[in-house]
Amino acid sequence: MGVVSYYVAASIDGFISRTDENLDWLNHIPEHNSFTILGGGKEDLFEYHNFYKTVDVMLMGRRTFDVTMGFAEYPYPDKKAFVFTRNLDLRPEVKHAVEIVSRDPGEVAAMLKKETKNRIWLVGGGSLASELMRAGQIDEIILTIIPIILGSGIKLFKEGEFEADFERQEVVALSNGLTQIRFLKKQTK
Predict the structure, then answer these.
(1) CATH label of the domain that carries residue 66
(2) Closest CA to 178 of 148, 141, 153
(3) What distance in Å separates the CA atoms of residue 43 and residue 37, rounded to the nearest whole number?
(4) Cβ(79)–Cβ(87) under 8 Å?
(5) Measured between alpha carbons, how far is 72 from 159 in angstroms, rounded to an integer?
(6) d(Cα 87, Cα 7) in Å, to the nearest integer?
(7) pTM, full prediction
(8) Which of 3, 31, 58, 63 could form a cystine bridge with 81, CB 3.0-4.6 A?
(9) Is the peptide bond preceding residue 125 cis, with omega within 30 degrees of 0?
(10) For residues 174 and 47, is the Cβ–Cβ distance under 8 A?
(11) How many structural domains is the chain composed of?
(12) Which one-letter DSSP state was computed for residue 36?
């Protein structure tokens, strides 16, 4: 059975992007040249490649998908991605396995958990993460903390009426000054 994993980078104050969805603040990370690490190259700054090998399928919101389409190359060519949107006219110019869906994200995640063996990567953003948290579908959070304060932007989770208990499993101090924390959802007895 698959698990939904929210693998995400955030500022110290809990933002995953600027208000305009810009990720330029990630560029201040030593050895980080935009998103070259997504395709390989230098040191694996976020333990990204080890994580990516464990991913069967991905979930992302429309705005997150739009951000990935702004990269020089689509960063996930070998993974099926479900893009959640209310605009079914979206026709991505991607030659990869991208499925546009308007169904309930919680129901899709529950279905995928039954169909997969490994991780279902919740790529983002904060709105989709909130919907999946509200539905009780996020099983794991791998949070990489970037040592910067943004002051405003798109939050890790939108405010809402949901609550979930997680247990810290691991804390890794990466050599580039980042900190990565892995949490698992507490199992109810």
Answers:
(1) 3.40.430.10
(2) 148
(3) 8
(4) no
(5) 33
(6) 25
(7) 0.88
(8) 58
(9) yes
(10) yes
(11) 1
(12) G
Amino acid sitting at position 100:
I
The amino acid sitting at 81 is: A
All residues at 6 or more sequence positions from 147 whose CB lies less than 8 Å from its CB, including other chains = 12, 177, 178
Domain residues for the domain of 63 are 3-185
> In the numeric block, which tokens belong to residue 19?
């208000």
Amino acid identity, residue 42?
A: K
Q: Look up residue 5 and give its DSSP letter.
A: E
